Structure formats: C-alpha cells, structure tokens
Amino acid sequence: MRDGVLAQLSQDLARREEQGILRELRVKGQGVDFYSNDYLGLASNNACHEMLTAALQHNPQWLRGATGSRLVSGNSAFVLSVEDFIAKQHETERALLFPSGYMANLALFSCLPKRNDTILLDEFVHRSVIDGCRLSFAKKMRFLHNDLDHLESRLAKTPGKCWIAVESLYSMEGDFAPLHDLVLLAERYGASLIVDEAHAMGVFGYGLVYTQALQERVCATVVTYGKAMGAHGAAVLGNNTVIDYLVNFAAPFIYTTGQPDWFAATIRNSYEFLKMNPRLREDLQSRITCFTSAGLPTFSGASSPVQSVPFPGVARLMAVREMLESQSLFTFAVRPPTVQSGSERLRISLHAFNTDAEIRQLTTILKELHDTE
C-alpha cells in the first residue's frame, strides 16, 4: 500500500515537472528585488528594526512564549492592548489578531456563513478565501472578476443570506475592486461583504476600506502585516458581534496557540514607524509611476505596486524570468495552477527602495522582449 501511494505521488510530481510547473523552494537571490511583497521596505529598514529592538530591550518579558491558545493560557494584556490600538487606528470597533492572513480567512469563511447561506466569490480571490469556504457548509458560487453585473445577477437569483468575498487589491492581477459599488450592491440585496486588504494595507494608508471610509458598511476586513508593514500576521477588523463570534466559533482561532507578545509588538512598531515616515508611500508611488510610464502591457492598476505583465506560455515565461535573473533582476513567474493556462504572467513588485535606474533597466528589457514577439 505504501509503495503504491508513493508511486502515485511521484507520478503527480513528474507530471508537473513535464508541464514546467513544478514548484521548488528557492533561496532569495542576490540582486534587485522586484518580487517580494516588502513594498515600503520596512522588512529591511534598519531604523524600523532599531525602534523594535529598543522596545524589546525595555520589555524582555515580551519574548516569552504564549504557552497555549488564547482561550486557555495564551492571552495577555499587552496583546489585547495592541488589538485595541489597531482598532483605533482603523476607526473600527474591534480587531482580532491571527498568525497569518491565511488563518484569518479560514476563520472568517469557515464559521460566519451557515448551511443555507451562499458565498459569492470573485473568481480571482485569494486561495485562503477559497479554502475557508471549503470548510463551510454554505453553498459557494463564483462571479466574473470585478463584474458587478454578473454579481448582481447572482444576488438576484440566490435565495437566503449571501456573503460576498473580494480583495481590495488583487495579488496576481494588481487591479482594484470597485469597493464603493460593491458596498452599494451588497446593501441593496442585504448581503455581507468581506474584504481582504493584504496588498493594500500600508501601501494606501490603512487600506482602501479605511481610506474610502467604508468600515461600517463592510462585515469584516482582513489586513495583513507580512507585506507592506514588514512584519507578520494579520488582523480581522469588525464590530463587536463579529469579533465575539470568531472568538466563540472560529476553529482556526480557538484551537491555535496564541501569538507571543513580541509578535504583537512587531506589528505595533510597524504602525508607529509608518506614521513617522509617510514619505515611504510617496516614494513608492513615484517608483510605480516610473514603471507605468514605460507603457508595458499590464493587467494592473496605474497606482498598484503589483504590475503583472503577460507572457503566455510556461516555457516562454520561464525563459524571460531566467534571462532577467542573469541580469540580477528578480521577478516572479506566475504559472498554472495559480492562474489559468494561457494567462501566465510576470508579476513585478515595486518598492519604495527600488531606484528609477533599476526600473528603467527592467522596463527596457521587457519592452525589447515584447517587441520581438
């Protein structure tokens, strides 16, 4: 039996290798970073690290382990104070910390929608949302990406309670959800909107829900800290009822060891540092403008730090990536099954620390490659 199972696993891996889509762990390369999610450079910012180090030196007790789930022994007054701080920053009633955005979405979508409910997912929504929905007894349906007419047709034909799942800034396309129109549509049909802000958080202030003052009109928002905030983890933002419900019914929260105090301290430090350095966002937008002014074909929004340049065909895409790496320019090749076959693309992440010269070198090469098609 064991040999048969291993043979099947080996066949699956071999099939992926033949298709050119086998995933492998790679050490981060030495060169120009056009692929990490460190949009504002906080993950490698020495001044940000020095602030955190000083805080930890004054509070060495923060380095202790959590020792258990937050409902047993793993909660602390400090973690609660940081959650209160986050809620105040986002002008919402409550915040609940999670070890990752993936876990936050598992918690939300596995417990809020009920058996007779329907979850309507944007077809390009993050895999963590999809996996959370798989743990729910609710019915799941997709709607065409950012297509309000298709979403409305789903809402009009669907009886019972509906939930709508979107990202504010889509991680593989780099385009934006029409949040205000989505809120209006949800309100018209009595649906509940949940927004994943992983790639907007920090880049656009405290996220697009916050900057558009929609906090009280969405059911819940997920903000993550491992991207522009340079830390790790996530928070679900919502009213008292939503957060209390997660604490009581969300298995990914209830049965997970709590995060230690240093985890919360790192997150608070990123907020404080970002407030002290608003210029970082301006620098990032300047770099994005430098890239978009080159006029490359892209799926992405003009102000997005994620710029996806289409290169259909796995072999061609990988050749482009490897050629760029030979010039010490590191990008990310997005292949199936992450995206559909035929929609392969080079995902370029822009950062406040990239230079205009580096960006021009990248765009010059990419333009030459597209011009030779």
UniProtKB/TrEMBL annotation:
Pathway listed: Lipid metabolism
MF-aspect GO terms: pyridoxal phosphate binding; transferase activity
Keywords for this protein: Pyridoxal phosphate, Transferase
The UniProt record lists the keyword Transmembrane helix: no
SUPFAM superfamilies: PLP-dependent transferases
GO biological process: biotin biosynthetic process
Domain Aminotransferase class I/classII large: 38-363
Pfam family, one: Aminotran_1_2
Family matches, as PROSITE patterns: AA_TRANSFER_CLASS_2
Top-level taxon in the UniProt lineage: Bacteria
Family: Belongs to the class-II pyridoxal-phosphate-dependent aminotransferase family. BioF subfamily.
Cited PANTHER family: 8-AMINO-7-OXONONANOATE SYNTHASE, CLASS II AMINOTRANSFERASE/8-AMINO-7-OXONONANOATE SYNTHASE
Name of this chain's protein: 8-amino-7-oxononanoate synthase
Species annotation: Dyadobacter soli
Source species taxonomy: Bacteria, Pseudomonadati, Bacteroidota, Cytophagia, Cytophagales
